[in-house]
User: Fold this.
Amino acid sequence: QLQLVESGGGLVQPGGSLRLSCAASGSTFGFYAVAWFRQAPGKEREGVSGISATGGSTNYADSVNGRFTISRDNAKNTVYLQMNSLRPEDTAVYYCASTRGPALLYLYLYDHWGQGTQVTVSS
Assistant:
């Protein structure tokens, strides 16, 4: 069973950047696709970006496409989310999650979740 731990959240001004990390342990990381989801107060959890097990395929929500970049280092058992040009509407708790299926941004596909990291974009 895979355990996931997010880090890298914090407070940043609009237009700034953050890099989130999702560190995995407990199973063969290279078998799993990983995605980032986020949940803002009072809103449903939504998909942000996903990456396939090998890293050869990625996808992004329209709201972050061109600003966020997902990557992974299977030797380090870590997935990253580089977030640039951050906006106040990006404020949310960000979660990483894993699946043995495709890296599509549907919550029901994912069966292992981290505890989340807070990202706040504010001046």
